[in-house]
Amino acid sequence: MSPLPVITLHNAPLVQSSTTPFTVIKKAVFSTLLILSLGSINYAQADSMSALIDQKTSQSEFTARYTPPPSAVPSARINTRSTIQRVRTKRSSDTNSYNYPAIQNQPPAVLPAFLSGYYDNVDSEYLPLLSSAEAQSSMAAREVISTARKMALNERTIIQGGCWDYLNEVFKRAGVTRDTVHKGAYRQGPYANSESIEVGDWLYYINHGYNGVEHSGLFVGWVDESAKQALILSYAGESRREPARYRVYDLSNVYQIMRPTI
To answer: Are residues 32 and 157 in the same domain?
Structure first.
């Protein structure tokens, strides 16, 4: 029998065979190193993926917390509609404009001069409530109420943006600051009691009259406190070219109150 061919490794002769002990050891060492290398890469990838999953989970929880489905919105006790209805104009040049119908009711003669007249963004039956709110509130609240009234009724001011931008401008022009006296969450609450709401407060509440969305407005006074119905100065804004309006809202779920201070 002819001898098997040999190879030299580290000056030692080895028989070239798949079953040689050294070859087995060599393959085992190589496999171990390969596994450890791949394992370290996999661990690094796993750590990175875990962090990514945690981040996505946190984002999903945040979105679910602050953008709940409509079914999660608390139901209103009473849902009333304003007597002022929006009528879409048919002008092709401005499809986002609205006209208010004329108010037929005569304003009471006891109103102060600055409220005498006809307005299409407040029902005349609520003018006495607006007048008393402006006359009987604290100094800071009076500045806010009167400034808002001038902007809405007398100047018919249009502000770029939405409800927050309008009320921020009202407080700015009134020369007052605001303190948060109650703070909850849109879906979870806690929701404020009617006793904790005062004239001139900037309220955040669930708009039950419009798909349960979040909204903010300026509190003027209670129309029916037991039913949580209040007169609010509200600004739709955005792409609409219309002034702020006074209308009745359901305040069953007020989750934030900011109070004017001087």
So the answer is: no
